[in-house]
Amino acid sequence: xxxxxxxxxxxxxxxxxxxxxxxxxxxxxxxxxxxxxxxxxxxxxxxxxxxxxxxxxxxxxxxxxxxxxxxxxxxxxxxx
Length: 80
What we know:
Blueprint: E1 2-5, H1 8-17, H2 24-38, H3 43-56, E2 59-63, E3 73-77
């Protein structure tokens, strides 16, 4: 199933409510996404941590094109 995330709020909701497997990358992504909700300078770090957590959880990702200043990722779950 493909998912699209339009920023740290969407990513945090997924991390906290639907994440398949927790580890250190997941914990870091949650922390940095929370920080990004209050401080926009953390948005790029939140995106990078979210991608690292996706890799750790065996979730495929691709970056959307033509984003401008928005951070998005389309997710495809590989696990069942």
